[in-house]
Amino acid sequence: MAALKTLHRNVPYLKQQLYALLGNTSSSVKIVCLMVFIGYFVSYYEPAVLFLTVTPGYVFPPGFRIWTIFTHCFVEFHFWEVCVDVVTIGLCGKLIEPLWGKMEMLTFFTLINTSVAFFGVFFYLAIYMATFNTDVLFEVHIHGLSGYIAAVSVAVKQMMPDHVVIRTPLGKMTNRNVPLCVSLLSIILYLVGLLEGAYPTMYTTGVVIGWLYLRFYQRHSNGTRGDMADNFTFASFFPTVMQPPIEICSKFVYNLLVGIKVCRKPVRKYDVGAPTAITISLPGTDTHDAERRRQIALKALSERLSQQADSGSSWPSLDDDSRPKTEVQAEDQSSPASNPVEPLTVAVEIDPSTSKPSIA
């Protein structure tokens, strides 16, 4: 009874926070959040759980419940999972959707969830083939947005890799550390029995698939695909000490995928007709990186301006402007006009026979 009174007393606050989270988001974000709430209440009806979640043994014939690959993401069994899903989707609507657009956001949502379910089914099928345990086929239910949340953490790492999430006595944790840390945390919680086995499977699969899509296949407005930046390699997910051996293994796998035509090598574009110098651009690293840095700079600028607006001491007083100027100040202000600085002109001549320009 006391819990109900506390919940009833905090309802206006919760409504205010929910409106602040979803107020300026698109209709697609609100619809997904609504579907997650509906899926949570439907989960109390067990036949609906079997009908909507992915059960590996029923996806293949004779069951052939192929539609569960598209419906499993809206079903959650615990209310805290619903809260995490709604917060994540709301942050995506405010942070990622303005940069990507509505269609790319829906494409990312659909691709990640269906891929996580698809590869999860084959993962449990491989476990069954190794152990002949039928429970992994008929007792495991793949559901929820764990894989999508993992892919979102990869997207946030791509956009703001150096943003500090939390500071600890052992050091600070940035967005580049979140995917690996949460993956390891989910595995540890599964080993101690506090988490179902589907969660680490979905989260790890979501990290890998999200990185593959953003690294090689995402189409940008300038016609390029992927993000070939050096700070978005697969080795960048791991600590600095572990990056050299992982980078060697990842390059071997990448060259293997290029050989079987799954991935393509980055195409370098040379702009010989540029007025100043030859420019080299890689797919996903020119306009995409520039837009990312521009958003980070705008956010930092807005935070700095808000801090200056709060402190009134940063603004000059009117008394300073009304004071009479001294003779020294008048001479200092008149000196640039009396002693103008002559412009310096440098001519650059390029000799075709040499590789370095000579300055005359």
TrEMBL record:
The lineage of its organism: Eukaryota, Metazoa, Ecdysozoa, Arthropoda, Crustacea. This is EOG090X06Q3. One of its GO terms (biological process) is retrograde vesicle-mediated transport, Golgi to endoplasmic reticulum. Keywords: Membrane, Transmembrane, Transmembrane helix. It comes from Daphnia pulex (Water flea). Residues 305-360 are annotated as: Disordered. It is found in: Membrane. InterPro entries: Rhomboid-like_sf (IPR035952), TMEM115/Pdh1/Rbl19 (IPR013861). Residues 305-316 have a biased composition (Polar residues). It is a multi-pass membrane protein.
